[in-house]
Amino acid sequence: MTWQLKCLTLYGKQPDQVRTLEFELGRLNIVTGDSLTGKTSIWDITDYCMASGDNRYPIRAGKLRQYVSVFAVQIVLGQHQLFVARPAASGTTPSPQMCLVFQQPGDAPLARDQLQFTFTIDAARKQLAEFTGIDQSIRLPTTRGNTMSPSIRHALYFCVQAQNVVANPDHLFHSQGEDHGPRTIRDIFPYFIGAVDPGQAARRAQLQRMKIDLRDHERALAQQESAAPASGQARALVREAIENSLLDTRDTNTLTLDDALESLRTAAAAPLPGLPQTPADDDDPLASLARDRDRLRITFQQARTRLTDLKTALGERTDFMTHALDHRERLTSLSLLKVGADTSQDQCPVCNSVVTDPNDVVTSLRTDLEELNATVVHVSDDTPQIQALIDEQEELLREHRRALSANQDERQALEAGIREAARYRDTTLRAAAVRGRISLFLENSERYTVAPRITDRREEMRTDIASLEEVLGDDVQADRVNSSLSLINQKITAKARALALEHSDAPIRLDLRRLTVVADTPDGPVPLKEIGGGQNWLGYHLAVFLSLHEWFIDHDQPVPQLLVFDQPSQVYFPADYKGATLQPFEEADRTALLHVYEAIADTITAADGKLQVIAMEHADLEQPVFSTAVIQRWRDGQGAMVPADWIDLGS
Questions:
Q1: pLDDT confidence of 280, banded at 50, 70, 90?
Q2: Distances (CA, A) of 260 to 240, 242, 297, 440
Q3: Is 7:109 a contact under the CB 8 Å cutoff?
Q4: Rounded to an integer, what distance in angstroms lies between the CA atom of residue 542 and that of residue 536?
Q5: Does residue 101 register a pLDDT over 50?
Q6: At residue 525, does pLDDT exceed 90?
Q7: For the chain, the helix, strand and coil percentages under 3-state DSSP, each to the nearest 5
Q8: Residue 650 CA: distances (Å) to CA of 18, 138, 645
Q9: Are residues 307 and 419 in the same domain?
Q10: How far apart are CA 203 and CA 69, in angstroms?
């Protein structure tokens, strides 16, 4: 026998704000209402008060976060009552402290000034597990290779069908879609259905630890063996030391391990092969030669350009002189035009007689001839100077060529020296790498020598493991699980047929490996996700969880006698459905929904007060099986999880 939920209490931000939602024990409790009234938060608050993890805050953003400072629940187990409270998160970080107080049956929730948050999350979980009846001394082996103790958080996997799970074809259990969720459900399932014998569980946990110890021991031995000096490796290092001038030449084939270690110690202390000094960047001769080469190339190009210009000028003067002399010869042909100081423009150039009216043509010809004579004389005077400049530039070009050739010879010689220095540098680097490996080898050898030796206990440990496995060979846990599942599957099948679900004429079973429902039809197994229709998905979820809780109750298993369904009518009606003025096509859906609540009511009746079901609904049906179970109706602005006056005061 274990606990049910008596009430849920909210403490507002103001001192006098307290709101309590009461539930009836051992009965169906329905909270129906419009969307956004806070129905889903009934489970969120319960989950938070059951010491949910510090990395997840189940209270969704909205009025609860805005107007509530403390969440609390009262849970009842026979004549025992436990009050559990937890402050709202700071931002999105859940509170790490909780308040747990044992009360007399029927006591009201604590007043705000009585709340003392003195329990850590781990301590609260242990107290809640003990109150639920979970044996915390049991260590369950897991598929991850370690062990764990069952907790209140594990028990809640079987207590809720959230809105996104209640008709989900892929996920059957709460939190099945989270990391490690499926593995954890499979690991703890045998314990909560009563298939785990405490003595056998202890031995299985011991076997798990022994196997872990054997792996650790084998790893330690491997590390120890890897640290032991090997004669072959030592001789190989000696040969490398000889090749890299760290040791003199010697015969390595006959070296003993001790001789090799001694040689390696000598090599580790030997200086590295010498390396020529590298000049500083400012005195780098190669860089200096490169700069000289660039300068010589610039001056060589400049001299070649000047030489080209001079030769061009000389050629142009030669062409000009040729044309000018030809022109002068034409003007002075037959000596008709006499040019000289004694020739007057008033005389005839042919007969020297006086001309009273000089001809303009004669004057122009005489003037052109005089100017041409002067130009020829001037050009003739410049030609030797230009030729002298050309000779000078050609000699300068020859000097630049000789300088560039000498620069190239110096660079080649210097680069050869640099390549030789690089060869020495590579040798030194190789020698340094070999010396580093030698030092590491010697360090490991010395550590191996002084470290305490690990005794090889592998055979002994394997013998102990084999002995314990032989004892556990008679372990009937797997048979117990299969036997229990067989009986639970009979219950699931009966409920599926009562709900007229598809494939319910075939045997229905809970597949623990895949965490789903499977119908074993003549054509082969059909898992839930291959069965179509939301009505079938909801019906099979309902059949599985009602059957599991019947088993828990019949076998007094430590699972809270609480089952929460969030909006099972979602597969039939829209979110704003209120159950009034049904259209003809809605009658079949209403009938199917009534069958769902009849199945729930029948299971509660058979449990004789040992099962409490809380349903959060949009639907609000008139039939007694539904209407008599309604404890809260939050519609048309009347009623909600957070009272309206808290919101008005807050705004």
A1: very low
A2: 12, 12, 60, 15
A3: yes
A4: 10
A5: yes
A6: yes
A7: 55, 15, 35
A8: 14, 49, 8
A9: yes
A10: 46
Residues 6 or more apart whose CB falls under 8 angstroms from that of 268 comprise: 435, 438, 439, 442
Q: Assess whether 285 and 311 both reside in one domain.
A: yes
* CA 269 to each of CA 258, 439, 460, 550, 639: distance values in angstroms, whole numbers, following the listed order: 17, 9, 45, 80, 88
What kind and span of H or E run contains 410? Answer: helix 360-450
Name the token pair of 264.
């390696």
Q: What is the chain's length?
A: 651
Ramachandran class of 133: left when φ > 0, alpha when ψ lies in -120 to 50, beta otherwise: left
Q: Up-side HSE of residue 592: CA atoms within 13 Å toward CB?
A: 23
The span from the CA of 397 to the CA of 575, in Å, is 100
What residues does 565 pair with on adjacent strands? 161, 615
For 294-308, 317-331, 438-452, 588-602, which range has the lowest pLDDT when averaged over its residues?
317-331
Fill in the amino acid letter for 132: T
* Token duo for residue 262: 């001694």
Q: What integer best gives the mean pLDDT of the chain? A: 82
Same domain for 248 and 340, yes or no, is no
Residue type, 428: T
Beta-strand pair 4-12/630-634: unpaired
Residue 195 has pLDDT above 90, yes or no: no
Give domain status of residue 109, yes or no. no
Q: Where are the alpha helices (DSSP H) in 133-256?
A: 152-155, 181-192, 198-227, 231-243
- The pLDDT of 527-555, averaged and rounded, is 95
285 and 259 both lie in a single domain: no
Do the beta carbons of residue 94 and residue 110 sit within 8 Å? no
Do 315 and 235 lie in one domain? The reply is no
More confident residue, 354 or 189: 189
The DSSP secondary-structure symbol of 503 reads T
pLDDT at 281 over 50: no
pLDDT the model gives residue 312: 79
**CA of residue 614 relative to chain centroid, distance:** 40
User: 520 in helix, strand or coil?
Assistant: strand
According to DSSP, the β-strands at 4-12 and 18-22 are antiparallel
d(CA 463, CA 465): 5
Q: Are residues 295 and 423 part of one domain? A: yes
Q: What is the mean pLDDT of residues 359-386?
A: 60
- Looking at residue 369, which CATH number applies to its domain? 1.10.287
Q: Which residue has the tokens 């390696």?
A: 264
Q: Phi, psi (5° rounding) for residue 615?
A: -120, 130
- Amino acid 584: pLDDT: 47
Going by pLDDT thresholds of 50, 70 and 90, the confidence category of residue 259 is: confident
Q: How many domains does the chain have?
A: 2
Task: Supply φ then ψ for residue 193, to 5 degrees.
Answer: -95, 5
d(CA 407, CA 387): 30
| C-alpha dist (Å) from residue 493 to 32, 58, 193, 488, 499 | 30, 34, 18, 9, 10
pLDDT of residue 587: 74
Which pTM does this prediction carry? 0.62
| Strand-strand pairing, 612-617 and 524-527 | unpaired
Question: Of 567, 564, 510, 555, nearest to 159 (Cα)?
Answer: 564
